[in-house]
Amino acid sequence: MAATDKILEVRELKTFFFTKKGVAKAVNGISFDLRQGEILGIIGESGSGKSVAVKSLLQIVAKPGKIVSGEILFKGQNLLKDAKAMDKARGRDITMIFQEPMTSLNPVLTIGRQMTEGLIQHFHASKKEAAEIACHYLSLVKIHNPQDILARYPHHLSGGMRQRVMIAMALSTKSSILLADEPTTALDVTIQQQIIYLLKELREQLRTSIVFITHDMGVINEIADHTAVMYCGRIQEYAATYDIMKNPRHPYTQALLEAIPSIDADQEVLRTIPGFVPSLLSLPPGCSFSNRCRYCRQICTEREPDLTEIVPGHQVRCWNYAAAGPQEG
Amino acid sequence: MAELLRVENLAKHFVKEVGFIRKSARVYQAVNNVSFSIKPGETLGLVGESGCGKSTTGKMIVSLIRPTAGKIFFEGRDISRELMGKGRHLQLRRNIQMIFQDAYASLDPRRTAGEAVEEALAIHGLYPDKKDRQAYIRQIFQDVGLQEDQINRYPHEFSGGQRQRIGIARAICLQPKVVVCDEPVSALDVSVQAQIINNMAHVQRQYGISYLFISHDLSVVKHISNRVIVMYLGYIVEEGGKEELFAEPLHPYTRILVDATPSTNPDADKNRKPVLQNEIDTALIGVGCPFANRCPQAMAICWHTPPEMKSFAGGRRVMCHLYGGDT
């Protein structure tokens, strides 16, 4: 990583859902830094809080969800304290793309109308200028006939094309942070590969920082510079993606990697994680992974471990690595 | 080994009426000229991207969709006509079962897990004695990894993985010979997916079932299958033993698919440039190779002559002009 300047600092962010059945701590104190031009991968299963975490960055969490505490520092400003700064940044400096582009595009408006709307709003561009900018970004995402696409409606386009339009739209405001919530999950593998390649190219060209959410370890491996593994609302492990894949430390990360069949490995029987992800309303006491962990000890069911740096740049939340030093396994 | 199920030149063309004043029919060729066979106890993987006709093929085998043309043989007998009639094919349906992707949608919310299994037994007149039947259901639940006290619970009380276990229980309780599995683990979380895959392998060994395992996920198919078929735009483009097919894909499309599948190997080359261009073009069906417009190795012949399926030693088949074939 050449650039080391932090563009986004998240500190102890907590987003809870106040439901009739109790308080679900969907995001329970996460902290991370995002550097310029960095792709940060967040991996987790359903209910891990990964989507809520990035929605919290834009403060678009729907009720009964509420950001309870924490700091989101964007270019030095705390967006949680400064509503004006947030309104300015949302959709302009920090933009987002979603899993299913069809649900985020308006079916009755042309692509051109939707792409220029933000530009006119944020930059007071004229319609003609906005259309030119839109065309420029459409060609950046490898759409060869941008003029033609501007006049089309979303249903005219394939899933891969729609996602390209979404990416172009998100970048056209010269945004510095792109939040991508499972942008390739609904796509075929060949299209997924194209989108991943495209995002990496755009990062090089535009120096955009990307937060990339996925449940797919393979996708993380292909795209992310750093990876945060989330489970039950907390980051369990954080390191350079290479280290996460090569030398996973947290039992959950290890189990995840052993549980997936790999295209270039031979596994007779897949290692399974017993049980399933617990409900956020009834987390086990102590470490939230303790009831499924094969190394669970007494202390794991009593107190929750802290996220600790065990080797430079590699943080793990696990008692196995606390105090007594790392134990193999 | 004898063939258990054989499909010959299976095709499905959907006809859609378009236009209001001047009505005309538009034909969508979902499946074309598909032939393959499944041996007893083996798993045949069927991979392809959305719209390639893999689900339609599976549904034709369990007769949820009526084929436009082609034959289906079960234990050497042509069953394609029989399957479409009423009544007499009960025995056939018992032998060919299906597991769906969305287990929740395929379960009746007002019926307990036990009742879902019991219904299948009742329809087929198995275990008429209540005590025997209850004991058998307990046995099946145990086999698919569900607890005895879960027999009387309703679908909404289960997690996604457990619901899929009910789906498996319902399919295997009739002791079928073939189970068509349509993306059975695609909707599940990774940690649960492994449990279900292992359980399906366990049940297969125990009951000697053959699987037709349909999936878009090459990694999963590679793990579970003995042989693999690759479909593109309604055609089988390649078939082979899983080791050979993944180690040395012959068809350019298979190669691209294997290459595009994300790897968890940290030392893998992460700057592989995607080679697949353009989009699916149905106009090529019947005119040339269906893959010609996207193929990096397309030749002049590919545009105007449909390639034939060529067979090689070891059950390898490929539909591509690049290969001469043994026969």
Strand content of chain A: 15-25%
> Strand content of the residues of chain B, in percent?
15-25%
Strands of the largest sheet of chain A, in order across it?
6-7-8-3-9-10-12-11
Multimer state: heterodimer
Question: Average pLDDT value of chain A?
Answer: 91
CATH class of the domain at 7-93 and 173-261 and 269-321 in chain A: Alpha Beta
Indicate the mean pLDDT of chain B: 91
The largest pleated sheet of chain A is described as: 8 strands, mixed
The portion of residues assigned to helices of chain B is 25-40%
Largest β sheet strand count, sense and barrel closure of chain B: 8 strands, mixed
Provide a descriptive summary of the structure in words:
The complex is a heterodimer of chains A (329) and B (327). Chain A has 329 residues and is of the alpha/beta class. Chain A has a domain of 229 residues: Rossmann fold (3-Layer(aba) Sandwich), CATH 3.40.50.300. Chain A is built from 11 helices and 12 strands. The C terminus of chain A is likely disordered. Chain B has 327 residues and is α/β, with parallel strands linked by helices. An 8-stranded mixed beta sheet of chain B has the order 6-7-8-3-9-10-12-11, with helices on both faces. Chain B has a 4-stranded antiparallel beta sheet with strand order 2-1-4-5. In chain B, strand 4 and strand 5 form a beta hairpin. The longest helix of chain B is centred in the middle third of the chain and has 18 residues. The two termini of chain B are 22 Å apart. Classes of the chains: A alpha/beta (329), B alpha/beta (327). Chains A and B meet through helix 8, helix 9, helix 10 and helix 11 of A and helix 7, helix 8 and helix 10 of B.
Nutshell version of this structure?
The complex is a heterodimer of chains A (329) and B (327). Chain A is an alpha/beta fold and 329 residues long. Chain A contains eleven helices and twelve strands.
Task: Give the topology.
The complex is a heterodimer of chains A (329) and B (327).
Chain A: E1 6-19, E2 22-35, E3 39-43, H1 50-58, E4 65-74, E5 77-78, H2 83-89, E6 94-97, H3 101-104, H4 111-123, H5 127-140, H6 146-150, H7 159-171, E7 177-181, H8 189-206, E8 209-214, H9 217-223, E9 226-231, E10 234-240, H10 241-246, H11 251-259, E11 308-311, E12 314-316
Parallel strand pairs in A: 3-8, 3-9, 6-7, 7-8
Antiparallel strand pairs in A: 1-2, 1-4, 4-5, 9-10, 10-12, 11-12
Helix pairs in contact in A: 4-5, 5-7, 7-8
Chain B: E1 5-18, E2 24-38, E3 43-47, H1 54-61, E4 69-74, E5 77-78, H2 80-84, H3 90-95, E6 96-99, H4 113-123, H5 130-143, H6 160-172, E7 178-182, H7 190-207, E8 210-215, H8 218-224, E9 227-232, E10 235-241, H9 242-247, H10 252-260, H11 300-304, E11 309-312, E12 316-319
Parallel strand pairs in B: 3-8, 3-9, 6-7, 7-8
Antiparallel strand pairs in B: 1-2, 1-4, 4-5, 9-10, 10-12, 11-12
